What we know:
Elements: E1 3-11, E2 14-25, E3 30-35, E4 42-47, E5 55-58, E6 63-68, H1 82-90, H2 95-101, E7 110-115, E8 120-124, E9 130-131, E10 135-139, H3 149-164, H4 168-174, H5 193-196, E11 207-217, E12 222-230, E13 236-245
Antiparallel strand pairs: 1-2, 1-10, 2-11, 3-4, 4-5, 5-6, 6-7, 7-8, 8-9, 11-12, 12-13
Amino acid sequence: MCLILFAYRLTPGQPLIVAANRDEFYARPSAAAHWWEDAPGLLAGRDLQAGGTWLGVQANGRFAAVTNFTDPDLPTPPRSRGALVADFLRGTQTSADYAADIRGELYQGFNLLLWDGRALTCASNRASTQTLEPGCYALTNAELGSRWPEAVDGVARLRQAVVAGADLDGLINLLRHDQLPEGDAGLPRSETAEARGTPCFIRGDAYGTRASTAVIYAEDGGIGLAEQSYGPRGVWGERHDFRVAVTAEG
């Protein structure tokens, strides 16, 4: 499962704080976070198989990230979900307008988090689009607000980190929590095994947590982004840190 934890306007001076794990097959080719040569001002990792990304920022202050719904029995639509992130970061539409224009039938199931510098929107082709109020949230491989144990646990741990004063190192460490969450209160019995028993950080041989990314937006216009990569069984890989001075023109 992939997990995006985020705190929106919960602390003065930091309007958006994000801690996200990307879980994927290790064999799928991808590039670590970098400035894209074909999209000036776009900072993100890149899926080298389909060309999109799972999370990124723009030098004009935009942010986007995506999680997938598991739809193994459905035919594969023509577009990669990672293109939704990249296209928003390349564009100029508000988050609400971009979400409204998405043709959901062209993609497998997704949750899409969009920040245009003013409003935070969660779009999905499996649930209704929402303009979010200040709060602490988790996006998994289900609709926003699902009571998956790791989402509930992750929100609680992120909230504690924000109260204590979140920084990039602390968020990366928070994402390495590899214990199974306790309990499944609020989950229907029909929920998947993935929902009931997946830790935040997955140590696998063929599939697992490939990267942890922390993003902190400052009210003064700066963005801090750190990405820690991992190999099979959670072996530490490279870390990349960026400080972005937001510019109006991107």
